[in-house]
Amino acid sequence: MKRFTKEENSWVLYDWANSAYSIIITTAVFPLFYKAAAENSGVSSAHSTAYLGYTIAISTFILAMLGPILGAIADYKGCKKQFFIFFFTLGVSCTALLAFIPSEHWLLLLLCYTVSTIGFAGANVFYDAFLVDVTPEERMNLVSARGFGLGYIGSAIPFILSIAVILCAQTGMIPLSVSAASQIAFLITAVWWGLFSIPLLKNVHQRYYIEREPHLIANSFKRLGKTLKHIKQYRALFLFLLAYFFYIDGVGTIITMSTSYGSDLGISSANLLIILFVTQVVAAPFAILYGRLAEIFTGKTMLYAGIVVYMIVCIYAYFLETTLDFWILAMLVATSQGGIQALSRSYFAKLVPKKHANEFFGFYNIFGKFASIMGPLLVAITAQLTGDSSSAVFSLIVLFVIGIIILAFVPENA
């Protein structure tokens, strides 16, 4: 197999960099920090979970609205990197700011988290679109999967540092409160994310673009309207996006709200952090394995496999009772969460016209982000109505069923 190029490795390393945000801010430390802060202020467990779901929905709605428009503008020469740098800087700065907001200001924490999420997700729109610039079509599955695989490994290092600081604070080994230790973890995340993004900033460049012209914004809206008007020309692409809309909704919701769900089940913060760390370690080789198997069985077949695993996760979640049950659930998720995301990205990249990659990845973003609104809202509303987080997670199975049915109608060409 051909060795990975400097551009491919630089692009892959950004997954190594920003995955620290995914595990520490999105999944592990921040949700626990926030729930403790909210509940110490008199907010019930179910309501704090609901508010987190509403916050995730708001932030993803904002970016979903901006995605296609910004993507259309970024297709012009030199714009892709500029947009990436803006959102990347916004995300890193607000992540660092979380370290300095007192825990009693839980609403301010949610606001800062919302803005950091916009920065993180916004940068990912343009990062994903860079895949067409760094590697040929026949290597996209491998490169995309390698990114997710190294992302899990890379995120494990700052996660270990964060867990060490938090556990030492819990046991009194260092003279810090658990709250202060959690805020140090936020700072570690920002530094890690910023430092390992440097290779992408230096070595990855926009190869496919539209030459600049007067009135960039006005013409971008015209191109966007033209794309929507002639949507039938891209039937396979938008059919895939529709399937993606449903199944990635369930994937994202399970990832972002897993610690909140575990906390509601009575699992201790220490156990949750350890489980999440092991999940990262197990997920790394499985993400790469998905990429290898996609070369043998096709990307679509492996997407089917990942969706089926998540359907099993939803069913199993309904019957969770013990910490061991949560361990089993986490390992099931670990086998497929990286693979399904990596192959979705590469499958879509093969379908898009390369010179309009940002515009179409803007649609990829809007479908993914609108899906991320529906899932957390479903969990939030169900949790409030039933007072039972297990029922909320089980309800997500319908999204995977719809997704796999629509995916069956997408052409087998990626």
Secondary structure: elements and pairs:
Blueprint: H1 6-27, H2 29-40, H3 45-74, H4 79-97, H5 106-129, H6 131-134, H7 140-171, H8 178-195, H9 198-203, H10 216-229, H11 235-264, H12 269-297, H13 299-318, H14 323-351, H15 357-386, H16 389-394, H17 397-407
Helix pairs in contact: 1-5, 1-7, 1-8, 2-3, 3-4, 3-5, 3-10, 3-11, 3-15, 4-5, 4-8, 5-15, 7-8, 7-12, 7-14, 11-14, 11-15, 11-17, 12-13, 12-14, 13-14, 13-17
What does this 3D model show about the protein?
By secondary structure, the protein is an all-alpha fold. It has a single domain (6-208, 215-407), classed as MFS general substrate transporter like domains (Growth Hormone, Chain: A), CATH 1.20.1250.20. Helix content is 81%, strand content 0%. It contains 17 helices and no strands. α1 (6-27) packs antiparallel against α5 (106-129) and α3 (45-74) crosses α10. The longest helix has 32 residues, at 140-171. The chain is globular, with a radius of gyration of 20 Å. 55% of the residues are buried. The mean pLDDT is 84.
